[in-house]
Amino acid sequence: MPIQLFSQMNLRKDKANALLIHLNYQAQMPFANMASRFGFSNMVGAGFDYKLKNWTIGVSGGFLFGNKVKGDVIAAIRTSDGFIINTDGVPVDVLLYERGWKTGLEFGRLVSFKKPNPNSGLLFKLGLGYMQHKITINSNVKQMPQLDKTYRKGYDRLTGGFYLSQFIGYMYLDPKKYINFYVGIEFHEGFTKGYRPWQFDINAPDKKSRIDGMAAIKVGWIIPAYRKEKVEQFYYN
């Protein structure tokens, strides 16, 4: 009968295989075409990587949000004081927000050092995926028929397409498994286009190709799950 024995991995000395579940936050500044539409934004996300010694492969996704929208797409339906009149004849201040999301694959390389352990070090990642963003209009649909779900689509600049990303930073995996994190800089280049067939404020379609860039400081908290290492297999009668 075969018996398999497993050893307790020494994370201070051994390069480990592990499933890394992570939650992250990004503080982002736009560039290229993105900067003409939005300002500073945030992204919160999650994902997982499978770490094979010094290589990683995984998936990630995030929710994009911000309150800095450049240009007032609904200026034509505002009063001279900047309000919109609702069905009760009351002037209402309608706000614009940035909203979006992304999801994709990531491939990474860990350049580890002897200290603090071989599972920590410089982390380089490349990503490929899909992103989408739009201008969200904050209004009461029942009181704002000019901005109901149908009409909002004529102002929201819904845009999407594939993106490339590059990350460089530091990853620390605690040998005691208590504190595990990464921090670094990430860049996104989105190759996108507008999806709406018509935009009311410009009286034209919004289907131009765009390069939507974002530069971010990214931090993440990691929950690792390590794989046991098989020592040997032997047989006995």
Question: Can you offer a commentary on this structure?
Answer:
This protein has a single domain, classed as Porin, CATH 2.40.160.20. 2% of the residues lie in helices and 59% in strands. The chain has one helix and twelve strands, in the order ββββββββαββββ. The protein has an eight-stranded antiparallel β-barrel with strand order 2-3-4-7-8-9-10-11. The mean pLDDT is 89.
How would you concisely characterize the structure shown here?
This protein has 237 residues and is an all-beta fold. It has one helix at 149-152; strands at 2-7, 18-32, 41-52, 55-66, 84-85, 91-92, 95-112, 121-138, 159-173, 180-194, 209-226, 229-235.
Q: Could you give the count of β-strands? A: 12
Query: Approximately what portion of the residues adopt beta-strand conformation?
Result: over 45%
Uncertain runs with pLDDT below 50, 5 residues or more? none
How many helix segments? Answer: 1
Cα-atom radius of gyration? 24 Å
Query: What would you call the shape?
Result: elongated
CATH fold-level assignment: Porin
* CATH class bucket: Mainly Beta
Distance between the termini: 6 Å
Order of helices and strands: EEEEEEEEHEEEE
Proportion of residues in helical segments: under 10%
Number of folding domains? 1
Biggest sheet character:
8 strands, antiparallel, barrel
Helix and strand composition category = mainly beta
Enumerate the strands of the largest sheet in spatial order, edge to edge or round the barrel: 2-3-4-7-8-9-10-11
CATH architecture: Beta Barrel
Overall pLDDT: 89
